[in-house]
Amino acid sequence: MKRPILLLAALLLLTGCGAATDSAQDSDSGASGGRWQPRPGVAWQWQLNGRLDTSVDVPVYDVDGFDQSRATVSALHDEGRKVICYISTGAWEDWRPDAKKFPESVIGRSNGWKGERWLDIRRTDVLEPLMAARLDMCRKKGFDAVEPDNMDGYKNSTGFPLKAADQLRYNRLVARLAHDRGMAVGLKNDLDQIPALVEDFDFAVNEQCAQYGECAAMKPFIAADKAVFHVEYELPTSRFCPETRRLRFSSMLKKYDLDAWRRPC
Fold it and tell me: Which domains does the chain have, with CATH numbers?
């Protein structure tokens, strides 16, 4: 949505979530090693399904890394946006072009989504080159950052005896792979390990912390001046926006299929 007065946009960014700024440059709070660093409260759009709607007036887009082209990323950059590359690093997806490269030995139980199964993240000998190739794809397409999904397998029934230490090791590996390619990286959910991982990641992406009473767990990112990109699916905005504005989250209501529809705080 257009903000007709720049001063109003700046004030909204300081006091609330979902406020758009005129460019992605305004979302930076400095860079770490030259990487983009989104700051708390920056507005965003998260669309993983359907024809990409590039008309949403926000400085940050989070889109599917496989489905979107370098030309799309470039066009978003031309509009002053930063672009996050969504990939799954903790689950196998049967429709991806590299699906056959994953040996059956590292593919576990379903994670509840059609065509997706947990990965044995202990097997970094197998997964590291596969994830490095995916991150190379993100870099070649020009993405500024990565959203690695399914980063909390150890808390789920994966079919593998995953431990917290396995998850920490793997998540740090993913962060390093992204940083080695000059991209920022976000920690997806994995609330219990935030204190240990906040220094390794440049921002957080969270689903439904308000519904489950977990938003306070995200505070270390805000304290470190790092954005928390947050969505709810089932609560009306009146139920979560007052809290997440106070916490300085970048919050919005989305549908589960993550199409273009959004209702920001």
Answer: 6-264 (3.20.20.70)
CA–CA separation, 217 and 212 (whole Å): 11
Q: Are 39 and 29 in contact (CB under 8 A)?
A: yes
Which are the contacts of 163, defined by CB distance < 8 A and separation ≥ 6?
154
CA distance 203 to 147: 9
What confidence tens digit (pLDDT) does each residue in 144-201 have? 999 999 999 999 999 999 999 999 999 999 999 999 999 999 999 999 999 999 999 9
Structure tokens at 147: 């959203």
Half-sphere exposure in the Cβ direction for 202 (13 Å, CA): 28
Q: How far apart are CA 222 and CA 215, in angstroms?
A: 11
Question: Residue 162 half-sphere exposure, CB side, CA atoms within 13 Å?
Answer: 28
CB atoms within 10 A of CB 45: 25
CB 124 within 8 A of CB 106: no
CA distance 42 to 230: 11
User: How many residues comprise the chain?
Assistant: 265
Rounded CA separation 17/252 (Å): 8
Residue type, 152: D
Mean pLDDT of the chain: 91
* Rg of the chain taking only CA atoms, in angstroms: 17
Distance from C-alpha of 40 to C-alpha of 228, rounded to nearest angstrom:
6
